[in-house]
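FORM 12-B: Structure-to-Sequence Request
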């Protein structure tokens, strides 16, 4: 039976940014790109309820950035109803705390949130540039990302609040299925230095750092990422056999 895989995009971007990755995976997997919830509620439980009701059971959950954090929380909620979890440039906590310092500084996040509240268009453009930073063609990547920004999305601010409030440390530790978490070496939003901390949370699984790329590695290196994902899924299936 062909494995089914759900791809969840990051904050502020539509699912088209994941199309190259979906196409690279599609030869062996049944791939669906699923939009993030469009909700004004900033309660993570509401976002998870919406995803849980909409997305099929018994599939791999793969998410980039905020999509990865939501996929992680949903995998923990579903347990055996989730085939496996893959996070792409996704942290256990997006905003740093004393207990989880390897994340975005709280004052940086606060400035970003205020900028989005007062001038979403300019803030999203800056966000696209931060996502592209660290890539071999940062300018070209930024242009591609800007073409897929959700500047008029009513859930932009609530999504940012969800991003700040999600704490997936317990979820990562609780999910017993296969887990792979890929970080980008030059990521300006999710520090690759968090790799060891993430690995320490997992009951089993892998955390790897992809070299010479930034947060937008899903768009810059879809073939390389697809190869890593497919290898991991094959190994997980072999272990189940």
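FORM 12-B RESPONSE
SEQUENCE OUT:
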């Amino acid at each position: 039976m062909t494995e089914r895989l759900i791809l969840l995009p990051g904050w502020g971007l539509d699912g088209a940014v994941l199309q190259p990755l979906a196409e690279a995976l599609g030869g062996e997997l049944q791939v669906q790109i699923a939009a993030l919830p469009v909700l004004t509620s900033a309660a993570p439980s509401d976002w998870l309820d919406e995803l849980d009701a909409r997305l099929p059971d018994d599939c791999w959950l793969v998410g980039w950035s905020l999509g990865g954090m939501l996929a992680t929380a949903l995998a923990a909620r579903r347990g055996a109803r989730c085939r496996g979890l893959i996070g792409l440039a996704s942290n256990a906590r997006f905003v740093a705390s004393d207990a989880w310092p390897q994340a975005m500084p709280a004052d940086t996040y606060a400035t970003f949130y205020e900028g989005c509240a007062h001038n979403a268009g300019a803030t999203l453009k800056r966000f696209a540039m931060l996502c592209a930073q660290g890539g071999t063609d940062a300018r070209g990547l930024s242009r591609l990302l800007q073409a897929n920004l959700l500047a008029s999305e009513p859930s932009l601010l609530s999504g940012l609040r969800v991003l700040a409030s999600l704490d997936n440390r317990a979820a990562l530790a609780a999910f017993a299925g296969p887990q792979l978490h890929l970080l980008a070496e030059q990521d300006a939003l999710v520090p690759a230095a968090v790799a060891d901390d993430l690995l320490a949370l997992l009951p089993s699984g892998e955390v790897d750092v992809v070299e010479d790329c930034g947060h937008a590695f899903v768009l810059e290196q879809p073939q390389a990422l697809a190869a890593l994902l497919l290898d991991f899924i094959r190994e997980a299936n072999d272990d189940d056999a």
